[in-house]
Amino acid sequence: MASPFDAAGYEDVRSYIQSNWTHVALVDDDGNEVTRINITSDSRSSWSSGSGSNPLEATITVAGGDSDIDVQSNGTITIVQTESYRGNATSTRMAADPFTDATVEATNDEVTITHTIEHPPQ
Length: 122
Hints:
By secondary structure, the protein is mainly beta. The chain has one domain (7-117). Helix content is 15%, strand content 41%. The protein has two helices and seven strands; from the N terminus they run H-E-E-E-E-H-E-E-E. It has helices at 7-20, 71-74; strands at 23-28, 33-38, 45-47, 56-63, 77-85, 95-104, 110-117. Strand 1 (23-28) and strand 2 form a beta hairpin.
């Protein structure tokens, strides 16, 4: 019979996720990836919880005038989900987080999104 992790084991798994699932995709209401953001190096994002937390949370703030959002060229964008990836070019999704729609209509519109990864509790 399998035994559960010790507290240190759970924290190690959460630390692994924060260190390796570094990219978050913003997905629109048509299921298309709008952009993919590196949580650790993009100034618009950061981990808002530490490896001792469950769920893990990353906070991302984007604006309609950001070059990868660009509502002037792309029109209104409605973000409905975030997805975790191990890198910018990988296609294997690690986790998905659907949430209440966030709509960006103008260049000065700004939305703050919390990407949540929940994992088995201790």
